Each structure stands twice: as structure tokens, then as C-alpha cells.
Amino acid sequence: MAKNLLIVESPAKAKTIEKYLGKDFIVKSSIGHIRDLPEKGIGIDIAHDFAPEYVVSPDKKKVVSELKKLAKEAEVVWLATDEDREGEAIAWHLLEELGVKESKTRRVVYHEITKSAIEEAIKHPRSIDKALVDAQQARRVLDRLVGYELSPVLWRKVKPSLSAGRVQSVAVRLIVEREREVNSFVSVFYFKVDGLFNANGANFHAELDKRYTNEQQANDFLTKIKGAEFSVKDLEKKPAKRSPSAPFTTSTLQQEASRKLSFSVLQTMRVAQSLYERGDITYMRTDSVNLSQQAINGAKEEIEKTFGPKYAQTRQYKTKSSGAQEAHEAIRPTDFSAKEIDGHNDTERRLYDLIRKRTIASQMANAEIEKTVITIGQNATQDNFIATGEVITFDGFLRVYSESDDDVEEQQQEAETLPAVKANDKLNFIEANATQRFPSSPPRYTEASLVKKLEALGIGRPSTYAPTITTVQKRGYVVKENKEGTVRPYKVLTLKNGEIKSTTKTEITGAEKSKLFPTDIGSVVTDFLIENFGEILDYNFTAHVEEEFDTIAEGKLSWTKMLHTFYNPFHITVEKATAVKERASGERLLGQDANGKNVYAKIGRYGPMIQIGDITAKDDEEIKAEDKPKYSKLRADQRMETITLDEALNLFKMPRKIGVYEEKEMSAGIGRFGPYIRHDSKFYSIPKEDDVYTIDEVRAIEVIKDKRQKEVEKTINVFAHDPEIRVLKGRFGPYITMDKNNYKIPKGKDAALLTLEECLEIIKNDTSAGKKKRGFTPRKKAGK
Q: Of residues 110, 283, 600, 735, which has the active-site annotation?
């Protein structure tokens, strides 16, 4: 048995580290946390200083049993979990649960999984930092208290099965408020004037230095400059520099991977975790932009070797956010000379390349730029046209990397290269266009821009961004969707050859990709929490709580004292909210139907719905059928806050009869899985390009025929004696289907040649999870 047992968090990390340590070490993984608060019950003794009741997770009992055995046999137990608070807490839980003496344990930390870093960590062990552990306990206990006490209030006052969380509810609030900004935004158009000029045989553009609020004003200006003479009124050239961005922190990596690679926040963290565990990058949960001197030297060496000495400019960055741990490093490659990494998938290679280029660029020379501004005057009015351009005289870091910006909805065009001119030069006027423009509403959040906003507000920390954004989507408060744009006309007035012509063009507006939208439930819950638990959803309060966790981690605040200060007023607020009788439904009166009955959009027990009519009878009165309210669920693409009266009333027209086919009636309706056509007790999904409210008989028959044809093409074999069993083509190859269950066809079997008996045997022997096998009896052939 090895003298030393070294415990890490993940199996992949264990394999990597085991290669670096000799035969005296055995490396094992705890596979993350081994214990936590119990799943059921609060698991906290509030009366006794919030003492947590930790239990070994059911799926970790075998792991703990094995680690206990190995720890007992080892001379020294090394706790080598991650260096952040979560990792420190895991190390403490291991120490507590394994029952080994503290004198027999060593805590080691490292920022990268390389041979030198691991060997250095072993040389400098320390004891467990209880202040870091307490900071993690404070977060875990406080979040359990909030969730445990708030969620039942939501069940009673809004809808069953809801949940609330300290950080997740604030994140939802941001998305709800942004959605309301978008919906209330009124776009007031203006006209901007762009001129096209020629100097020394080269065309270039310039924009008028004022804008017009209506078409008449724009037309008047173009009329005035007919036949005007244009010349260079002023010419300004000035050098400028552009500096590289800092190396990646967790949040900036998530943002840039979203912009450049279209990764979700969760995907970025999963891929980065894999790169870290295999020794390719440093630790991926950090809020520091600091680089070690060794890293700076490594980057400089690689830059000078690849691009030459003039491209190297080493610098150290300082983190702006308070509470950042400067002793940690930014996310960087462990080996700057490794331009590519072997044995990885394409996703891992792309993220590694992004991290490497960003870090290399951070230690490169500034880009040098010459900016040119030409002011163009004319003899008809006092107004000027302005042309701006730039020339990169030295590319510097831009040779490797340029940061994206998700605040800019549309990528701006590169600055135009302007012709060589001097003051008072005459210019040839070619044309001018006055174009109608509409300001954009505030952009909805992407996952990346939400992370940026949370970080700016001081809400959450590197380890919390990905789980928070994932949680609000899983719980149905937020959806990530694409939104199709709508066609919008706009006017263009063109002055050319002394004539002004007006044309109307069209553009697609409002199209959005992978944006975060609040659901109706998310909006109603947010309003309820703001009204009753304003402090919990207050941005400053949430940020202050994060600062208190940092103070606890520094050993300057007792974690139980912090919880007492928070919990007592919080619990009183919970009791007050529970005592309120009214339910929160987000009810919105849309108007009245043809019979004068009120039409409402509201949250019901089963989600967003439309209600026609009021409940006016008392408990002991019998309500007539015609007086009972009618209800309809909203469509997936409809929202309570924006649905119109006509759209709401249309929901009650479903299902509607649309004709007859094969002597059987067809109807169109909306179900759980979207719009459908029903015919002969079968359902056919209506394609996205068709409208359930207007689809006619001819189109419905086409949809049915198309679906049948696809079924025929999909079918390999149907058995006459048992038509319920079929052999079909699937996305991942042929399979057998029976009673709505699917069964894999074993390798080596030709799907086209399978007999009924062979299919039954495959079904009988299938061991896939979730399929009922008890009492399976092979079917008899019909007539036997």
C-alpha cells in the first residue's frame, strides 16, 4: 500500500496527477462534494447558531467507504481539492468524514496541473483555511434558508412547485425589467444624411453633422445643397493607440466564448474544466487578471520567437472588482509554446485557442493607429459633412486577437480608408442619401451579457454564474429563444444629378438570436417577490451579501453572526407575506368579448391562461352553465403582458373545423406540442410557416399527405400478423417500435431481413432503462 493518499475532486484530474507522482502516492477522486445538507427538510438547526446537518450523499457512500479504507492504511492523507472556497469546503468535509487525525493530513493547492506545479504544492502544504470553509458554509446555509422559506410562500400565493433563490431571483428580475424596457420602448425615427464624394479619383463617404426629425426637413436640406460646391474645410490627423484586453477571468471567458464561439455559459465551464483537468490551462474559476512572472516570461518568449522583439510588451493587469483574489492567476495556457493540443475534440481545441490567443495578446505591444477626420463644408448652408477614417500603422496585438463587444447589436463596419487631401481642396459631389432610421430598443440579455451585468453589480462570483443561469432556465422562469424579425418599411431621399427621388425600402427589424426572455411565471413571481421581499431582490443588498461572504473568507466576520443579522428580519417578512390572503396572478384586463364579459390574462394553477367572465356567485349559489367563466391556455409564443384582446379571443376558436378528407372531418387546434390538424383520430403537426388560425382544407390535406409519405419512407417493415410491431429508420439507425417503446437492433442484424419472431426476441431481451419487462409474453400470431 502506498504511503500517501492524495484526494482530488475529479477522476480525470486524478489520472493526470497520478502520472506526476511516484509509486509512493495513490491518487483518488471524491467526485466532487461527498456530503451536503439533506435533500428533504431544512437541515439547519436555526436555534443553535444555524448548525448545519451534513449527510453523506447516497451516491457517495461507496466512494466514502473506499476513501476511509485507503486513508486508514496511508501514512499521510493529502487533500488536493480546488483552491477556491468550494474546494476548501470539500477538503474540510473529507477531513471530517474520513475520521483521520489533522496531524496526519496535509492541504495542498495549485493553480495548474503540471508536474512542476504539483511537485511545488507537495513541498509547501498548509492546514485547512477554516475562514474559507465558513464563507462557503455561510453561502450554502443562507441560500437554503431563502429557498426553504420563500418557496412555500410562492406555492401558496402564486403556483405550486415554484422555487426562489437569493441570486437566481435577482437574475430573473434583471431579465424581467429588461423585457419591460423593450416592450415599452417607443422608437422615434429620424433622418440621417450621408454624402458620397470623390477626391483624386477615390470615392469616400461622409455623414452630415446633424439629423432631421421628419422627411420635410431632410428634403429641404437636400433642396438647398443642389448645385452647391464642396471643399475640405478642415483636416485633422492624429496618432492613437489601442491596448490589448486583460487575460481571461471566469466571467470574461464566458462572455467572449459566447460571442466568438456561440458557447453557452455552462458549455464554456464544462470545456474549460476538461482543459484544466488535463493540464492544458490554469484554474478556470477566478476573478483575477493577474499573471505570474513565470507566465509573463513564457508569453514574452513565445511572442519574440513568433513575431519578433518589437511585438512584445509585458504588462501586469489589476483587477477592478472588489474582493478579487490577486494571489490567484487569470485563466491562461500552462505552456505558451503549445499552439495546438493533441487528443482533444474540436470544442476543446477552439476554447483553448481562444484562451491562448487572449493571453498572448495581453503581453503584446499596443496597436498604433493614425486617425483622420475630414470636415467638408459647402457654400449653400453652414452645415458640415464629417468623414472619419483610420489606418493601422503597426498592428501589434491585433495580429493575434481582437475583443468582441456584445453591447453593439450590429457589428460596425471597419473605418474607411480616406484619400489624401489637404485643406481647401475642392471635392466632387456624387450623391447624398437622407435615410429614415429607427433607434433600437435596449438589447435583451444573452447569457454572456447577463454574466457581465451580474458581475458589474457585484452579484455572484465565478463559481455561481453558470449554475445560476442554468437554474433559472431549468425552472421555467426564463427561456433562451430566437425571435424572428418583422419587415419594416423606411424611406430614402436621394439627391443625384440635381434631382431628388424618394424610394421606400424594407428591412428586417427585431430579429434576435439566443436571447433570454422571461416567462409569464418568471414575471409574476418577480413582481410578487419585489412587493413582499424587496430587500432580497434589491441589487445593492445582494451585492452586500457577497461582500460579507468575502469578509468571512478573510476571517474578519463570524459567519453565524452574519446569518443572525440576515435571518431574523427575513423570517418576519416571510410570516407577513404568508398571512396575506390574496393570490398573485398577474391578472391583466384585456377588454370585453362580444357579450360584454371581461377578458383577463392571468396565471392559473396550471400556468398562463385567458379567462372570459367573472366568478360572481357565492359559495352556496349554483352557477348557470352560461355564466361560468371559460378558460384557454396561452400559446407557447404568447405572453400575458403583450397579448391583445383579439389574440386572446382567437384562442377560444380552437379547435376549428377546416374541411373533410377521405370522408372524415379535419380540425385545427393547439395542443401541448403546438398547433395540429386532427383527422381520423390522428394528429399532424402544423409546420411553422403555417398559421393554425388561417390554414385551409387544401393546405391541411397537403400536411397530412406529407406526414404519411414520410412515414412510408421511414418504414422498413410492417408485419401483417402484428402491425403494432414495426421496423423503422431513425436518426441513429434502424430500430423496432412496439407500444410506443423503441428497441435497439443488435449489431450484425440486418433490419430489412428481421422476422416477427426475431423482433419479439429482441424486445423480450431488451434491458434499456424505463421499459417494463415484467410479465412479458410474446404475442401470438393472429388466427392462431
A: 283
